[in-house]
Write a structure and sequence with these properties.
This protein has 119 residues and is mainly β. It contains no helices and eleven strands. It starts with a strand and ends with a strand.
Length: 119
C-alpha cells in the first residue's frame, strides 16, 4: 500500500516560513502526480497545491505567490515551502497522490502535520 508521512509543521509567527515534507513509500513515486491539502477544525479539506510527474504546478488562489510545491523523485518526497504565513493558513496539512497514468486518484490519508500561525 501507499504510505504517506508528513512532517515539518509547527508554530510560526505571521510572516514566517515553514517547509513541509511528505515521504511516499509503497509505490513508484515518480509515476504519481502529488498534492498538498489542508483542513482547519470544522472545515472541509481543500487542495493547496499540486505537482505533476513532469513538475508542473498549480496552487489555490489563497496561497499563490506564497507557497511553492516541489518534488525530489530520488528521495520519494514532495515538499511545500510556505512563506509569508498568515493566521488563516492554520490547519492540518496532508499530502496525497493526485494522478496516475493521467487519471485522478487518491489513497488513504496520512496523519498530516499541524501548522499553526499565531503571534
Amino acid at each position: 500500500q501507499v504510505h504517506l508521512v508528513e512532517s515539518g509543521g509547527g508554530l510560526v509567527q505571521p510572516g514566517g516560513s515553514l517547509r513541509l515534507s511528505c515521504v511516499v513509500s509503497g509505490t513508484i513515486f515518480s509515476m504519481y502526480g502529488m498534492g498538498w491539502y489542508r483542513q482547519a477544525p470544522g472545515k472541509q479539506r481543500d487542495v493547496v497545491a499540486t505537482i505533476t510527474t513532469g513538475g508542473s504546478t498549480d496552487y489555490a488562489d489563497s496561497v499563490k505567490g506564497r507557497f511553492t510545491i516541489s518534488r525530489d523523485n530520488a528521495k520519494n518526497t514532495v515538499y511545500l515551502q510556505m512563506t509569508s504565513l498568515k493566521p488563516e493558513d492554520t490547519a492540518v496539512y496532508y499530502c496525497n497522490v493526485e494522478t496516475f497514468l493521467g487519471a485522478k486518484v487518491k489513497t488513504d490519508w496520512g496523519q498530516g502535520t499541524q501548522v499553526t500561525v499565531s503571534p
